[in-house]
Amino acid sequence: MAFNLILMGLPGAGKGTQAQKIDEKYQVPHISTGDIFREAMANKTEMGLAAKAYIDKGELVPDEVTNGIVRDRLSQQDVLTNGFMLDGYPRNLDQAAALDKMLADSDRHLDAVINIDVEPSVLVDRLSARYICRVCGATYNRISNPTKVEGTCDVCGSHDFYQRDDDKPETVKNRLAVNIKMNTPLVDYYKNQNVLHTINGERDIDLVFKDVADVLQSVND
């Protein structure tokens, strides 16, 4: 089965995990904007070089360059054959409109936008639960991946841990607020197009994926 999908969700909602499971089951190419930017720059494509010029100056890459890199990726044979799963794009309404035009120009359409929904308070707990061994750098999570013996690194036996500044609750809350502001108009945009499917991401990973698979089955029927 070939699908044209967008995966949405706030940081920590589990998009990466679900993308991997979709890829394993359906072999739909997973298109992460970070990955295609790096690939376009490495291959020195016209759009890749344009993006690099902005990134090297520490500036945001304009929408027209981002759209061009996505358009190039969506024209590749694996996507034309097997569909796509976009992750990290579109990030605003102008990009969403550009994507609609790209697909219309090649006689394609979006099958589904899957929004993995998790309450921000739960995400703060998830994202701020990460801690790191100061001696060997092993990473743990108090909720999902704690040390086997409390206070002792599984790898080196150290008892010295720390938390990165960007994992601290206040920083996490600020990051989530920025993402909520960015995502809300897109959620409304795709809801109005009748392609949005919101899934409760606060449950076990396999239960979330069952709902994802049910959505994909329904759009394929």
Automatic annotation (TrEMBL):
Zn(2+) binds at C133, C136, C153, C156. One of its GO terms (cellular component) is cytoplasm. The lineage of its organism: Bacteria, Bacillati, Bacillota, Bacilli, Lactobacillales. Pathway: Purine metabolism; AMP biosynthesis via salvage pathway; AMP from ADP: step 1/1. Keywords: ATP-binding, Cytoplasm, Kinase, Metal-binding, Nucleotide biosynthesis, Nucleotide-binding, Transferase, Zinc. This is Adenylate kinase. Residues 32-61 are annotated as: NMP. GO terms for biological process: AMP salvage. Its main location: cytoplasm. Transmembrane segments: none annotated.
